[in-house]
Amino acid sequence: MSYEPNSGQPYPPPHGGYAPAPGYGPPPGYSPAPGYGPAPAPVPPAGYVGGPGYQPVGGSPPRPTSPPYLASWGARAAAYLVDSVLMLALVFLIFATGMTFSFEVFEEDSPWMVLSVFTMIGLVIFVPFAYFWLLHAHNGQTVGKLALGIKVISLRTGAPPGLGGSAGRQLVHMTLATVGILGWLLDGLWPLWDEPNRQALHDKAVSTYVVRTRGDSAYPY
Fold first, then answer.
1. Domain-wise residue ranges, the chain
2. Nearest C-alpha neighbor of 210 from the set 108, 122, 120, 142
3. Is the pLDDT score of 51 beyond 50?
4. pLDDT tens sequence across 155-188
């Protein structure tokens, strides 16, 4: 129904009832400027995965299986090797010095000699544990990880795991190592096929992962 002035209708009809004025539209011969067209669809940043159901416009480029800032298995293995050599040297120094002192001071069959031996064994176990526990809790880096530019952080907070998380992480690692070579290898090699976080078994136990701290793909602290 069209609106007619002075027809008794109190208001004109809604917008949908209007018809354009005669001759309305682009002038004859009009064409858009060269190159003019709809704005291109936004391109997501490199590495963006998107939410559930997300599909990039114009196709589906391959998506990375792991965030780019995760440390490689090679960097982790090299850092562990550096730390292991350092710990072996430190433990040997402690044990050799302690036992030399004990044999010089105590008689071979005395209770003090037995106590000294058990003390040295305890230090051989505790010193490597304390090394990884305290350094990871403090800033997520041992000497080896600092040299290789990687760091342990919590999945929940993005910060170093703290005393509790770091202690649990190291206890799980040492427990798996005491099972035998199979447990030690399984734990150490697990990041090779674990996606998307490249976690070892001792990482999964306390929800930590290892990230890069240097280069273009460093973790954005």
1. 73-212
2. 142
3. no
4. 999 999 999 999 999 999 999 998 889 999 999 9
CA–CA separation, 208 and 49 (whole Å): 22
Q: What pLDDT, on the 0 to 100 scale, is given for residue 34?
A: 61
Mean pLDDT in residue range 202-209: 96
Tokens for 213?
Answer: 């701290």
Other beta carbons less than 10 A from residue 93's beta carbon: 10
For 194-211, letters b (16+ CB in 10 Å) and e give beebbbbbbbbbbbbbbb
Unique residue bearing structure tokens 């430190």 = 90
HEC-encoded secondary structure of the chain: CCCCCCCCCCCCCCHHHCCCCCCCCCCCCCCCCCCCCCCCCCCCCCCCCCCCCCCCCCCCCCCCCCCCCECCHHHHHHHHHHHHHHHHHHHHHHHHHHHHHHHHHCCCCCHHHHHHHHHHHHHHHHHHHHHHHHHHHHHCCCHHHHHHCEEEEECCCCCCCHHHHHHHHHHHHHHHHHHCHHHHHHHHHHHHCCCCCCCCHHHHHHCEEEEECCCCCCCCC
Structure pTM?
0.66
User: Looking at the DSSP assignment, which residues form a beta bridge with residue 212?
Assistant: 150
User: What residues form DSSP beta bridges with 150?
Assistant: 212
How far is CA 44 from its chain centroid? 21
Give the pLDDT mean for 119-129: 88
Q: How far is CA 175 from the centre of its chain?
A: 23
